[in-house]
Each structure stands twice: as C-alpha cells, then as structure tokens.
Amino acid sequence: MTPLLSARGLTMQYPGGATPALDAVDLDIAPGTSVAVMGASGSGKTTLLHCLAGILRPTAGSVTFASGSGPVDVATLGDDARARLRREELGFVFQQGLLLGELTALENVAVARMLGGVPRAQAEAEAAQWLTHLGLAGMEQRRLGELSGGQAQRVAIARAQVTGARLIFADEPTGALDSTTSEEVLDLLLAAVAAGRTLVVVTHDADVARRCARTVVLRDGRVVSDTALAAAAGGAATPGEVAR
Ligand SMILES: Nc1ncnc2c1ncn2[C@@H]1O[C@H](COP(=O)(O)OP(=O)(O)OP(=O)(O)O)[C@@H](O)[C@H]1O
C-alpha cells in the first residue's frame, strides 16, 4: 500500500547542537493506522513530529505526503504551500497552545474552517456538529478557561477533524490529564482512526502506545525499534518491550 507519509534521511541539526536532533530517519506511515512515537526525553520525538508535519524545516531529507492533489515533499514546499497543507490536510492535537483562550469552544473549531474560506455560519454549524459528536453539546459558548483539560482536548480533537484532515499529529495529548480522562481522549483519537484517519502520537505513556497499532522508539535522533518492522521480520515485540 502506498504510504500516506514517507520520510527518508530525515535529519535535523539545530544551530549550536552538538549532535543532530534527528539523524537520517526513514519512516513510512500507512494510511488508516495509529503510530505511537516513544523515547526518552530529548530523543527527538517532537522534532520528528514537527518535521513530518511541516512545522519545522529539516536540514536534510524528504517527507513525502500523499496529499489530495498528489505527492508533495513537505520538507521543501514553500512557506505558503506548507501553511495551506497544515491548514487543510493535517490536524494537530498538542498538550497546549493551539487553542485560542479568547475564543469560545465553537469559535476555536469554526476558525479552522473559516481560515479555509468557509463562511462563518457554515463553519459554526459544522463546528457545533463536531462538538456534539465529541460530547461537548451545551459547552459551545464556553471559553478555554471555562473548560477542563479533557474538555479542551476534545475541542482540539474537533478542530483537528473539522477540516477533513486525513492525518492527525498529537504531541503528548494526554500528558496533563488524569488516567480516566486520558483514556477518554485516546478513545476519541482512536475513533478518528476507526473512521479512516491516520494518527501519529508522541507519548511517554506506555498505555497510550499499547493501544496504538504500531510503536516507533527513538534514541538520540534515530529509530531504534519499530513494532511494524519487528512484525514484518517475524518477531512480535510489544510496545512495553521496545520502549525499554
Ligand atoms: N529549538 C531548539 N533549538 C536547539 N535545540 C533544540 C531545539 N528543540 C529541541 N532541541 C534539542 O533537540 C533534541 C531533541 O529534542 P526534542 O524536543 O525533539 O526531544 P523529545 O524527545 O521530544 O523530548 P521530550 O520528551 O523532553 O519532549 C534535544 O537535545 C533538544 O535539546
């Protein structure tokens, strides 16, 4: 099957860094799957996610994304095209920082559509549907400060899907949540996968990784284990084993 996302030789050398944060990473991500990215603090997880998503420009390598209009190299796209790709085809669920505190839950979701040129009334109607779908009916007019951490993550998950994004990047989406709320948030992200989307999630949480179809582990900017490769080679490795 053609990968949805394919990185080759992905390398990121931050200015002043003694060693590269990412060192020639090759990674294929199939459509419709869930991939957990694990590894110790500083191993390069967030850098990998940001390079895959076109947030950071890598110093070398390519990231081919099978966009709706054909394959594009995220690593070398111009700034405007990268911004459009992120807006229209990719969804983001981060621990914090992506939602706007001065906007209501409804506006935070609707704005993702309005940035794509959808009229406000239609964008708000679609946003309301997603909020209801994610269990936030009645909370549309609340501002961020009036929502719990789990509710705010539901808004982020609604926002990540309202545009029709096929690929969702999540960075520690459950990092600030208690275990019950974490499970609920993960349930919603995996429901998006069951509906045909693809999920790449950076996590320190072995429970999150265990529920993903595949786990990739980084160490010092390199992939040191990958359950998909282990399975292809005939050796089944559990995420708990590979994360150690
Ligand atoms: N903007 C930056 N400038 C310079 N070095 C950076 C920058 N961002 C990250 N690094 C370095 O790159 C390496 C990888 O960082 P990254 O944040 O990708 O790791 P991580 O695995 O996501 O860590 P954590 O689990 O702590 O979030 C680290 O050595 C870090 O110090």
TrEMBL record:
GO molecular function ontology, one term from the record: ATP binding
CDD domains: ABC_MJ0796_LolCDE_FtsE (cd03255)
Keyword ATP-binding: yes
Entry-linked Pfam families: ABC_tran (PF00005)
InterPro entries given in the database record: AAA+_ATPase (IPR003593), ABC_transporter-like_ATP-bd (IPR003439), ABC_transpr_LolD-like (IPR015854), MacB-like_ATP-bd (IPR017911), P-loop_NTPase (IPR027417)
Residues covered by the ABC transporter domain: 5-242
This protein's UniProt keywords: ATP-binding, Nucleotide-binding, Transport
PANTHER family, per the entry: ABC TRANSPORTER RELATED, IMPORT ATP-BINDING PROTEIN
Name of the protein described by the UniProt record: ABC transporter ATP-binding protein
Organism: Isoptericola cucumis
